[in-house]
């Protein structure tokens, strides 16, 4: 069992490296090629994409991982069919909304949103297939899918470099989405599953105890971050907003590792929870300590990067990015320390506690970020993010410890009841 989990984890990190490479390529090319204002528009569109991705995962693919990972193959396939179908419909709806808003506002930001609206369905469906493959233990299929995406994207970006395609923010987003579209089509062949296109309302209704809280949790967190980002754009201009996005780009490899941990470890933690909550707690602690250590090391490397190298890689946007690197480094350390607890809460289905923890962090993010932005522009906002992240790590772990105790108590009660009834079975508590 340990060997199989290790193999899945290794392939999972390979897959996330490929997936993050795709995001990094488009972001790095934009940072290097676009003027600060145009890059700011691209950064806002990319932030909207992350919002759409989070909503899609919260409503569709995270409930699949929590509820279906430990199920029989036939049951899992039925859930995967409905989940991917739900993502497809959701992607079309959200993409259409982006398209309409982009056409309405016009300008650089509008053009980037229009491009995102076209690319969004492909981007979300490709990500859904990755979740399906991870939850079913077919991690190599996810890696192959992402490899095809990156390969297609490199080819299209090569055409831009050769002058065959114009180099602009919207064209970069379209090329990025085209590669994802190829991965989405490949996912159909790999899985041999036909999505249930009309399943979105039923899926959300059936898993409302998870969907609503996961979505509320993500929207609250993302809304707070984006509120601060737009506050920076209003008070200090798009270039300042681009500085924070650029600093996050510098931490792209670390973000890749944290995202890989989230995608890879959630199904493993679900399996741990059904085996033993003590195993789950121990692995959650190990994951957080390991990711915190990696975050510290990467932060020190970024802070020690010579200006000449930063300028060469990221062009004229480097000075603004460098000014907020220390705060973003602290923020990423807090994020790394939180991973084990956040995934542990999901693994035991403690959606109510997870939402409560997230809502406790939101006021710190908003107050600290907006106050910092008004006083010290991008650097102050980044400091607000850092304080919220460190505070959040403490809150997440407090709630996970409580949820683990509740899980143990529920398991003991159900075990006694099952023994009395002569039917020894255990169902995970839903909270």
In words, what does this structure look like?
It is a single chain. This protein has helices at residues 2-33, 36-68, 73-105, 107-135, 139-161, 169-191, 200-206, 208-236, 238-250, 252-275, 277-303, 307-314, 318-322, 325-347, 351-421. It is globular and about 60 Å long. 54% of the residues are buried. The protein is built from 15 helices and no strands. The model is unreliable at 423-431 (pLDDT under 50). It folds into two domains: 1-206, no CATH class; 210-431, no CATH class. It is mostly helical. Helix 1 runs parallel beside helix 5 (139-161) and helix 9 (238-250) packs across helix 15 (351-421).
What are the salient characteristics of this protein?
mainly alpha; 431 residues
* Share in β-strands: under 5%
Largest sheet: none
Shape: globular
Total number of domains: 2
Low-confidence sequence ranges = 423-431
Summed up, the helix count is 15
Helix content: over 70%
Strand-pairing-aware structural class: mainly alpha
**Rg (C-alpha, Å):** 21 Å
